[in-house]
Input
Amino acid sequence: MKDWPETFDLAVVGGGNAALCAAITAAEAGASVLILEGAPKTYRGGNSRHTRNFRCMHKGPMFPLTDAYEEEEYLHDLMLVTKGKTDEGLARMAIRSSEECLPWMMAHGVRFQPSLSGTLSLSRTNAFFLGGGKALVNAYYNTAEDLGVKVAYDAQVTHVHREGDRITHLDTEIAGRPVTVKARAFVLASGGFQADIDWLARAWGPSARNFLIRGTPYNRGVVLRDMLDQGAESVGDPTQCHAVAIDGRAPKYDGGIVTRLDCVPFSIVLNTNGERFYNEGEDVWPKRYAIWGRLVAAQPDQVGFALIDAKSIDLFMPSVFPPVKADTIEELADKMGLDPQAVRATVDGFNAACRPGKFHPTELDGLATEGLDVPKTNWARPLDTPPYYGYQLRPGVTFTYLGLKVDAHAQVHSAEGSIRNLWAAGEIMAGSILGQGYLAGFGMTIGTVFGRIAGKEAAAHVA
Amino acid sequence: MSLDLIIPAPSATDEARRQIEICNACRYCEGFCAVFPAMTRQKSFADGDLTQLANLCHNCRGCYYACQYTAPHEFALNIPAALAEVRVESWERLARPQALARLFQTHGVAMAGLLVVALAVFFWALGALRPVEGAGFYAHLAHNTLVAIFAPAFVLPLLLIALSVRDYWREVGGGRVRLAHLLRAFDSAARMKNLSGGHGEGCNFEKGDRFSDRRRVFHQLMMYGFLLCFASTSSATLMHYLLGLEAPYALISVPKLLGVPGGLMMAVGAVGLGWLKLRADRSLGAARVWGGEMAFVLLLGAVALTGLGLYVATGSALVGPLLAVHLSTVMVLFLLMPFSKMVHGFYRLAALVAEAGQPAPSSANE
Output
C-alpha cells in the first residue's frame, strides 16, 4: 500500500454538499484539506447532485424566500413528518442555524432563484438553487479549489483506522490503487447505504431487489458499515428507507427528479392483478407521494399501474417517458401486461361508484366514490374519455435512515465516549434528526449546518 | 450487410426532442435563460417548437454544467449542442439557395475562397475603372461605381434574409407582432440578457463550470462596433447625397466619430470572440460548423482592421491596395449575410420577438 505523500490537517470522506461545506469551512480557518470523493469527477457530489432546494428558517422576507418561516413552524413541520422521531435539541439547532447558512452559501458561490414552476407552495419555506444541486456542487468545488483544498476522485475509503479515542488513518483505493491517507482530523460525509442493494435486501427483505435507486450508485455505505462494526453509536431504523413511487421505466440508479410521476391523484392505481389497493385521492400529491413508495413496495412484484383518461393528461407535470396510450381500456391493459378482463371489471366498478360534482384539480374537492371497499375520496372522475394513458410505478429509494449518532458538535461517539478527531455530516448522520419521513429541502439543511460545524470543529482541533 | 446500416440516424430535431422532453420533466435550469421557461408551455414538441427553442438558445452552456443527466448518464443530455445543431439546420433549411448556406455555414475555406475571388475582382476594378478625378479613395474608385457595386450586394442578401425570416415566422407559429414585443426583444438583445446566466455573472463558455462575462462583453463590442460602423457609412452616404459633403472626412466628423471607435470595437470583439472560441469546448456547440463560424469571426475582424488601416494610410500609396482588400472583405460579408453566422442575428431577434408574443409561462400544476 502506497502512502499519500503528505499528512493533511483534515481528510473529508465524501464529496457532496456536507463534505464540501466541511472542507471549505476548515480550509478558510487555515487547515490543509483533502476531499476523498468516491465517484469519478463526472458523477461527483453524491445525492446533492439531484437536490434542488434548501429549507430555511427566516424571520422576514429574504431573497429568494417570501414572508417568514420561524423556528416553531419549521419544527412543527418536522414533527409532522417524523411523528416525533427526532432529537428536538439537534433539530432546533439545525433549524436556527439554517438562517445564517443562506448568506454563507451565497458568499461561497451558490446562486438562488425564485421557486421553480410547479413548486409555488414552497416559495416561502425553501430556497431553490439556480440550476439545481449540481450547480451548487460545482460552485462549492470551485470555491474549495480556490482555497487550496485537494480533491481525489474515484477515491473509495475501505477502512477507517481507530486507535482508542482517535482515528489514525484511512485505507483507500484511489483509481483502483490502494493508498493510505493520514490526517489529524477526519470528517465522514459519505452518505447512506441505499445503493447497496444487498444491504437493502437484508434489511427490508428480498423485494428490495425490485426497488429503483433514485440517486447516486456510489452511496454504498462502506464507511458507515465499517464504523458500525467498530462500535460507533448509531441512530435510525436500520430496516427502513425513504421511498417514493416513480416511473417504473426509470434507470436502476440515478434517475433523479425526472422520474417523478404526479399523476396518482387523477388516476386509478392497480396492482398486477388489476385491482385497486389504496385511496388515490387521499390528499394533495405533495403530502402523499412519499407513502406511495411503500404502498407499491407492498404489492406483488413491487409494481403498480396508474391509469388515466384524456380528461386528466394535462393536469400534472410532464413525465420523462411518454405514457402508454390506447383507445380502449382493454387495449391499454394489454399493452401494460395486465389482464384486460380484470382491468375492465375494476374500471367499470370504479366508474359506477363515481358521483357527479365539481372537480377541482388543485384543492381537495371532495369528489368521492361511493360504496367501494377501496374508496377514492377526492378527484374521483370516471375513466371514460379515450385515449387512455398508463404509467408503471415502482418504488424509488431516496435515502436510508440508519446512520451515525452525533452530538451538537457533529462529533461521532463510541460506547466509551467521543472519538476525539472524528466528525460526521450529511446523510450519514441525518437519522439523528430525521428518524422517519421526509421534509423537502431538509436534507440539504442538515448537510450544510452539520458540514459547517464539522469543518469548524475539525479546524479548531488541529489549530 | 447488417440491419443497423439501414436504420437512419435520428435527425437533429428528433434528438433535440428526446432531450427537451427529459428537460421538461426536470426544470432545474429554469433560471438560466428564456429557453427553459418557454419549454414549460407544452408537453410535446412539434418541429417548429424546437426550431424556436433552438433559436432562442444563446449557447451559454449553463444548463450543460448544471445537468445531472450529461454523459456518461444514460440520458446523455447535451442541450447546448442539441439546440445548436437544430439552429444551424434551421438556418440552412430556411436559406435560399440552400446549397450556398450548407457550404458557407460549415466551411471556413469556402469563405476564404470567396474572399480571394472578391480580391481579384476589386484589384482588377481598381485598375480598369480608375476615375479621372476624385479625392481620397474616390481617387481610386469613383463614388458612383462603389454605389453601383455595393447597393445590390447589400440589398439583395437582405431581401433573401427577409424571405427566410418570414418562413421562420410561419414555421414557429409566430403571432401578430406588437410594439411591446419588439421593445422587449430589442431590450433583451441590447443587454444580451440571455448570456447573463440568470444571476448576472455570465455564462459557461470558455471556463468550464465557472461563470464568465467575457463572451457577453466581446459579443457586445462586436455588435455595437458593427452598428457604429454601419451608422458611419450611412451618415457618410447622407452627407454625400443630401449635403454634398464628400469623403474624405476630417477626424472631427460624424462618419469618423462613429466609424473609428466602431472599427476599434469590432477589432477587439473579433480577437476576443476568436480567442474564446479556441478555448471553448467544441462538443457543446454545433461542432461541424466550427470552421465556418471561426472564419466569420475572422472576416469581421478583417473588415474592421482593413477599414482602420485605410484611415491610418490616408494619403499614402497604400490606400489603393488597402481599399481593394477592405472592399473585398465588406463585399464578402454582405454577400454571405444569408449564408453565414451573420444570419444568427436576424433569427435570434425573430425568436426573441416570437417569445415576447407568447403568454408568460405558467406552472404546470399549480
Q: What stands out?
A: The domain at 244-396 of chain A is CATH 3.90.700.10 (Flavocytochrome C3; Chain A, domain 1).
